[in-house]
Amino acid sequence: MTVTRFAPSPTGHLHLGHAYSALFAAAAADDGTFLVRIEDIDAGRSRPAFIDDLLEDLRWLGLRFPEPVRRQSVHASDCA
Prior knowledge:
With 80 residues, the chain is α/β, with parallel strands linked by helices. It has three helices and three strands; from the N terminus they run βαβαβα.
């Protein structure tokens, strides 16, 4: 089973390059799993509103992914 992921930083709105990357990763998953992981470790620039907007935009593109999505900040201590 193929697993792919899309890991945007919530520092702004979804742009065309991000949309392409997400669509490509979802297509590459084929019948596998497409994961979204929010790279929210830049506390100075990350905004919760951007997370909501990114996820809404991905859904608008027709992408489906397991929820709740992973947040890198939750796992940051695992890397220390």
